[in-house]
Amino acid sequence: MIVSKQKPFEDILASLDGRSRVFLVGCAKCATVCKSGGEEEVWKMQEALTTAGKEVTGSIVIDEACHMLRVGRDLRARKEMVEEADALLVLACGAGVQSIAASAGKTTIAGADTLFLGNIRRFGQFEQRCSLCGECILTETAGICPVTVCPKGLLNGPCGGMDEGRCETDPESECVWHQIYQRLKEQQSTDNLGKIAPGKDFSRMLKPGKLKLDK
Amino acid sequence: MISQLQQKLAAGRFVITSEVCPPKGADCGEFLTTARSLNRQVDAINVTDNQGANMRIAPLAVASLLVREGIEPVYQITCRDRNRMALQSDLLGAAALGVSNILALTGDHISFGDHRQGKPVFDLDSVQLLQAISTLESGFDLAGNKLMGTPVFFAGAAAAPAAEPFELTLFKLQKKATAGARFFQTQAIFDPDRLARFTTAVSPLNVKVIAGIILLKSAGMARYMNRNVPGLKVPDHIVAEMEEASDPVAKGVEIASRIASAVRSHCDGLHIMAMGREELIPEIIKEIR
Predict the structure, then answer these.
(1) Which end of chain A, N or C, is more open, meaning fewer C-beta atoms within 10 Å of its C-beta?
(2) Which sign, positive or negative, has the C-alpha torsion A173, A174, A180, A182?
């Protein structure tokens, strides 16, 4: 899922400066799970904005704010409330903000910061394991991604900062190459560690990414 | 230009290198004064690359100034700040400027330094950088294009003999040797037995070993380095020894020279990190030379 985090309320208010009527948008998928823009957060935002003297013209929690056609349809269904507003405040990831901005036809405020593609460790705890690099090497690395989990993205083993299996950037974290080493040892396939990985093909992740399925 | 450091090592001569941190600024007067005085004591002087992720003048620029002075540099180049194009183009620049000794490093993470909001690059890692150097030496670039002329380098890599698990670090050292490293410069050594274990383990790789020796100036500095310098771990008993000393710098010299003597037979040379007290290097290596 896409992990996002609501911006501080003062920052949101500052973005709304000079705009008194606001239409609120949340997302029923990722932003709901990471509590940046689900039903509950949209309702709380409505309360907070009202207390701060704003008028909330209406709200909607869209089932996948990144789905551009659905966003267009759902906003049309609340046309009057949207038209009444001076701005739309979106509590969703950057993909969601953009599909809404494309349909809204008026000022759109991003109410959250988008952080990473995350795994859910447990309720309310998210970790980045994949950085969408376009060329998966997990088969070679015991199912643990050094591109993402190593702060330097090193492909050929630990850097000189690793000691006692810990990462130089955070002694609380286990070096990803230590994790890979331990798992390969369990699987008795440490031979993999001796193979030189060539420089990564970063052309696989050139921006903006596009994919069109064959019919 | 043929590396004299390489020739000396090949001839079995025990070498001494040291390092001078390039200045933060374009005024290299003090840097050159230190390097000139150091030149009489050592075989080559390393110039560090934005050491500790702190922005300083380009090491290639100061390496070139050293060549002009007749001083042999070891150009440290990290993957933190340059992608594969910039690395190759700087390496070609080094060859053109007569800088042939290269220490190929991954680089400390940007979060340790003074530009923490910058984008860390790490397009290549140290093994791939060594491969890039070997590729340039074959007369081609990484994209397979032919080069005008063929640069000659003497490339080395870093090693951390005390890091655990040792077996894990050994995998990477083997890759570095395969990729073209012809010398290993180690992290500061405090335990001669660890260096002996290391040298035995890497001896089949046919790579020269230059052991790092650091001059501790105080117990506080040792503790600071333990907290803030990746890969460097001063053992408690050495910190205690510094703590109890009435003259900490003299004690630091004594410790450094004791370690230097103890590791002498396990390596092909020493790399002395004198931390701004370069005038003390003769004393540290007095029993070695």
Answers:
(1) C
(2) negative
Task: Determine the residue of chain B that is closest to A151 in CA distance.
Answer: B109
Instruction: Give the C-alpha separation, B102 to B153, whole Å.
Output: 7
Q: Which 3 state secondary structure label does DSSP give A133?
A: coil
User: What is the per-residue pLDDT across A49-87, written as a single tens digit (0 to 9) for each?
Assistant: 999 999 999 999 999 999 999 999 999 999 999 999 999
Residue B44, Cβ density class (10 Å: 0-12 exposed, 13-18 middle, ≥19 buried): buried
Rounded distance, CA A113 to CA A94, Å?
7
Span A133-188, pLDDT tens digits: 999 999 999 999 999 999 999 999 999 999 899 999 998 999 999 999 999 999 99
Amino acid at B187: Q
Q: Do A151 and B159 touch (CB under 8 A)?
A: no
Identify the structural domains of chain B with CATH numbers, from first to last: 4-159 (3.20.20.220)
Using CB atoms, which residue from B111, B142, B172 is nearest to A158?
Answer: B172
Residue whose C-alpha is closest to residue A115's, from A8, A5, A29: A5
| Joined tokens for residue B288 | 């070695």
DSSP string, chain B: ---HHHHHHHTTPPEEEEEEPPPSSS--HHHHHHHHHHHTT-SEEEE-SSGGG---S-HHHHHHHHHHTT--EEEEEESSS--HHHHHHHHHHHHHTT--EEEEE----GGGSS-TTSPP--SS-HHHHHHHHHHHHTTB-TTSPBPSS----EEEEEE-TT-SSHHHHHHHHHHHHHHT--EEEEEEPS-HHHHHHHHHHHGGG--EEEEEEE----HHHHHHHHHHSTT----HHHHHHHHH-SSHHHHHHHHHHHHHHHHGGG-SEEEEE-TT-GGGHHHHHTTT-
**Lowest mean pLDDT: which of B176-180, B208-212, B272-276?**
B272-276
What's CA A9's distance to the chain center, in Å? 19
To the nearest whole angstrom, how far is the Cα of A182 from the nearest Cα of chain B? 9
Q: How far away is chain A from the Cα of B126, in angstroms, using its nearest Cα?
A: 8
**Residue B105: other Cβ atoms inside 10 A:** 22
Note whether B97 contacts A: Cβ–Cβ < 8 A: no
Question: Are residues B112 and B84 in contact, defined by beta-carbon separation less than 8 angstroms?
Answer: no
- Report the C-alpha gap between A55 and A19 in whole angstroms: 9
Q: What domains lie within chain A, and their CATH numbers?
A: 2-116 (3.40.50.2300), 132-199 (no CATH)
Predicted-complex ipTM score = 0.94
Best to test chain B binding among A133, A147, A155, A159 (most B CBs inside 10 Å): A159
